[in-house]
Amino acid sequence: MSSAIDDATAALAKDLDISKDQMRMLKSTFEAFDLDKKGAIAIDMIGQILDMLGHQVVAEELNKIVKEIDSDGNGELSFEEFAHLASRFLGEEEEDTEAILRELKDAFRLYDKEGLGYISTDLLREILKELDDKITPSDLEQMIEEIDADGSGTVDWEEFKAMMIG
């Protein structure tokens, strides 16, 4: 499997308004499902692929999408057909990620009342207890140790973001 993309694939990425990295990811996903290496994947794999990319689609919507994308009606998707389909979902993912990061940043600012750029691990302990009231003290301490990797007793934005995103 090659991580490089050829000129035609780069042009397709531009047409679909996705990055070359996103196109590489689509290419490797496609190649992983093209078991026979014939340059096509069965349309019945599409639901599974979208699921893997984090998008659950109901059967009715999936059938509508497949009919639209499988333009030649052969029951298989070429890489180009697959890229057109998958690219629809990539933009949504980026917007969702940006929105989540904005919300996390706002939440962090709420806790960082003095605007110091960090919160104490004691405050984080309280936040984690509120989020999960069944958390054991030892699990809580282990989480705090992992989050506050430098042992400073504080959690900055990057540590907070890494914890919340996982």
Automatic annotation (TrEMBL):
| Domain spans labelled EF-hand | 21-56, 57-92, 99-134, 135-166
A Pfam family this protein belongs to?
A: EF-hand_7
Any idea which UniProt keywords this protein has? Calcium, Repeat
- Is this entry keyworded Repeat? yes
Superkingdom of the source species: Eukaryota
Q: SUPFAM superfamilies attached here?
A: EF-hand (SSF47473)
- Protein name in the entry: Troponin C-like
Q: Taxonomic lineage of this organism? A: Eukaryota, Metazoa, Ecdysozoa, Arthropoda, Hexapoda
